[in-house]
């Protein structure tokens, strides 16, 4: 089964998402350019050498995007709306060449009052690097289809 429906979640369950992603310089440069982020610490090695990190820093919104993507098969494959990300924290920098992994823990479940075919799932997600150091954390809430509903229900 790919993805979980609302009924498949249990408060307290933790999923270590199976894939990892090594972030290349090209990933970081392209994402930075696509999002019009002009902070040179993401794409100018000479500039970055003068910062406290002394090397290229991965664009933090790229880290959000990758960790979100890593979590999709386990927590949001059958979500149809993100309701919010809260308390995004970046306790450790991510650098070009780092490999990022993720894990999520189910915090809360509740039936939707306005959509009987869906429920609201809240998870805590952490992204961590190849050394096991947390690089990003947040709480995310999604509107998720119940089993038998949504575009995949008839397949």
Automatic annotation (TrEMBL):
The highest taxon in the source lineage is Bacteria
GO MF entry, a single one: lyase activity
- The protein's name is Uncharacterized protein
Which Pfam families does this one have?
MC_hydratase
């Amino acid at each position: 089964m790919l993805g979980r429906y609302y009924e498949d979640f249990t408060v307290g369950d933790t999923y270590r998402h199976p894939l990892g992603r090594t972030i290349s310089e090209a990933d970081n440069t392209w994402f930075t350019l696509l999002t019009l982020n002009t902070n040179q610490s993401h794409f100018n090695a000479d500039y970055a050498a003068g910062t406290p990190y002394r090397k290229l820093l991965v664009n933090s919104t790229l880290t959000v995007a990758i960790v979100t993507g890593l979590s999709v098969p386990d927590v949001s494959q059958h979500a149809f709306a993100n309701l919010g990300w809260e308390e995004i924290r970046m306790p450790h920098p991510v650098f070009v060449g780092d490999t990022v992994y993720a894990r999520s823990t189910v915090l809360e479940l509740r039936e939707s009052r306005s959509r009987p075919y869906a429920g609201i799932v809240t998870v805590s997600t952490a992204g961590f690097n190849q050394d096991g150091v947390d690089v990003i954390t947040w709480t995310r809430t999604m509107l998720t289809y119940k089993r038998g509903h949504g575009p995949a229900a008839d397949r």
